[in-house]
Amino acid sequence: MTETVTTDTLGEAGQRGSLEIKHKAVERLAVLAARSTDAVARPQPGLRVLGGRDLPKADVTVNGSRVRARVAVAVTWPSPLAKVAADVRAAVARDLSELGIYTVDRVDVTVQCVPAEATHEEGRVQ
What we know:
The chain is of the alpha+beta class. It contains 3 helices and 3 strands, in the order H-H-E-E-H-E. A 3-stranded mixed sheet has the order 1-2-3, covered by helices on one side. It starts with 12 loop residues before the first helix and ends in a 13-residue tail after the last strand.
């Protein structure tokens, strides 16, 4: 009994295939990066902007290997808005760049709302 073994030789790694990340997946990664930033408010019931979308939200433009992102966030009170926006910008750029596929050209961050702290009503004794 004779066994026949065939081996397919593989070409260079860059010639074997490619990785394609869908547009919505890139937007989702930008939202997750923004959400991981300190002082960005977590999604809450009732915290919606016009159009009915929860915050944070992202809109990305992918052109070949280049990405531009627009990110909208809600920031907890009291937080320095400029610092939070800079932190979100850095987190989104870092996370999208770490994919190794994209060069991030620009990340624009908009603070769309600063939700008020939850108030706790204390009961009265009569």
